[in-house]
Design goal:
heterodimer; A: alpha/beta; four-stranded parallel sheet; 9% strand; B: 104 residues; binds iron/sulfur cluster
Chain lengths: 323, 104
């Protein structure tokens, strides 16, 4: 039995409308990564997570539960789930990642803080006001709900005096940089991914990396970075200057092959099949792979099991430039 | 069988001047290159829209939502079709008309 597409989309939309995120997170979990970093609250330039890395362990848990339960289970209960979900956050009961799993993903924004500081960038953070961008809801066509949500995000930027936002993942980057200007009047926030900021600061040329890395790494470009936002050269320049030998797989750069993540919430079995195809392409190039999107990371590493190793690009860069 | 046709469908979908299914020349590059393979077939969807075949579009709901919006097709399309945004626009249409979602 196929997944009840409308009901799943309904739950995700209700969550964004009522709780500001497709999968609501407790504030303590969403802001844990900031602990001990002494980041100023707000300011002209802020590092913005859009909750993407914090959400991944929860999405991972939900998808595993969904695959285990099978489509028929979802077919029977999602209708009831949506009604209950309006009052109680159902997803909170379905996925409860451990502190270690959460810490693994929190490491990415922490790495970025150290890298940006090394590059001499002055920035703050928005803590509990660092909201989800609405990316998945926009992809699913929930335009009206996304517009209302985007207004809340924009209001936070205005209230905190933010002019420039530094993003980490591709989905938040494209929402804040390419979608919000289309759907919001008067939105004039400058948005750059930290990879672009580091490249601009000259980290992509030799001489900035105090600790040279070595070894071959296959690069998996994110579709959104490569084809929506044109971020292709920056990760390569940064990795090459760090001493890494980059291997390109079949389908790379602007011709990259999607990890399957975008359909995971509705059709996890199709998503997994696509990820398995991509893993075969990557494995043919090298056993170590660098990703730059948390959805790519989780989809590909799940599909690969122990046949490959995956690392977020921030990990390599921090080891080379800011350890 | 009665065919219910909505000749204004393509115009209705083009709220923001971005929906350009009419630029598609049905060359098949997108179908050949799509990582989701036969599941998606966007050019067929676009043809249904241009012909106003609204029922057929809705019958393709799973295909419309199986697209990764990855733009692999768009990158290689010789006619500059905004494939991903067109598919997203069809989703919005289905969200409003079939699922009754949108306003919440
Ligand atoms: S590649 Fe472009 S022109 Fe060719 S069939 Fe697909 S959408 Fe139409
Ligand atoms: S966007 Fe990607 S998944 Fe969707 S039709 Fe194009 S190539 Fe296929």
């Amino acid at each position: 039995m196929p997944l009840p597409t409308g009901e799943v989309i309904g739950i995700l939309g209700d969550n964004l409308r009522l709780r500001n995120s497709v999968l609501p997170l407790p504030t303590k979990v969403a802001t844990k990564w900031t602990e001990g970093l002494g980041l100023p609250h707000g300011g002209r330039t802020v590092l913005y997570t859009g909750l993407m890395y914090q959400l991944i362990p929860y999405i991972e848990g939900l998808v595993k539960a969904q695959i285990k339960m099978g489509d028929s289970w979802m077919g029977k209960y999602t209708g009831l789930g949506r009604k209950v979900n309006r009052y109680v956050n159902v997803s909170a009961f379905m996925a409860r990642p451990s502190a270690e799993e959460r810490a693994r993903y929190d490491q990415v924004p922490i790495n970025v803080v150290h890298l940006l500081r090394k590059a001499g960038v002055q920035f703050g953070a928005l803590y509990e006001d660092d909201l989800y961008s609405g990316a998945l809801a926009y992809d699913l066509g929930l335009d009206e709900i996304v517009v209302e949500h985007a207004k809340k995000v924009h209001a936070v930027f205005k209230k905190r005096g933010v002019k420039t936002v530094i993003t980490i993942d591709p989905h938040t980057t494209t929402m804040l940089r390419s979608v919000y200007p289309k759907i919001l009047k008067g939105y004039d926030i400058e948005v750059k991914s930290y990879l672009e900021v580091l490249a601009e600061k000259g980290f992509g040329s030799n001489g900035h990396s105090p600790r040279q890395l070595s070894g071959d790494v296959v690069i998996h470009d994110s579709c959104v970075f490569a084809r929506y936002e044109g971020v292709v050269d920056e990760p390569r320049e940064l990795l090459a200057a760090a001493g890494v030998t980059i291997r390109d797989p079949e389908y790379t750069g602007r011709q990259t092959w999607c990890c399957g993540g975008p359909v995971e919430s509705l059709y996890p079995i199709k998503a997994a099949a696509n990820a398995a195809n991509r893993v075969a392409q990557l494995r043919a190039a090298a056993p170590d792979c660098v990703t730059m999107c948390p959805m790519c990371f989780v989809n590909l590493s799940t599909a690969a099991g122990d046949t490959m190793r995956f690392k977020d690009i921030s990990q390599y860069l921090r080891e080379a430039y800011a350890s | 069988m009665t065919a219910l046709v909505n000749p204004g469908l393509a115009t209705e979908l083009n709220r923001f001047d971005e929906f350009n299914a009419d630029a598609c020349m049905n060359c098949g590059v997108c179908s050949a290159i799509c990582p989701m393979g036969v599941d998606v077939e966007v050019r067929k969807l676009f043809r249904y829209v241009l012909l106003g075949m609204e029922e057929q579009v809705r019958a393709q709901t799973e295909n419309v939502f199986s697209c990764l919006l990855c733009k692999m097709c768009e990158e290689n399309c010789p006619a500059g079709v905004h494939i991903a945004e067109n598919v997203r626009t069809l989703r919005h249409h289905i969200v409003l008309t079939t699922f009754g979602l949108g306003e919440g």
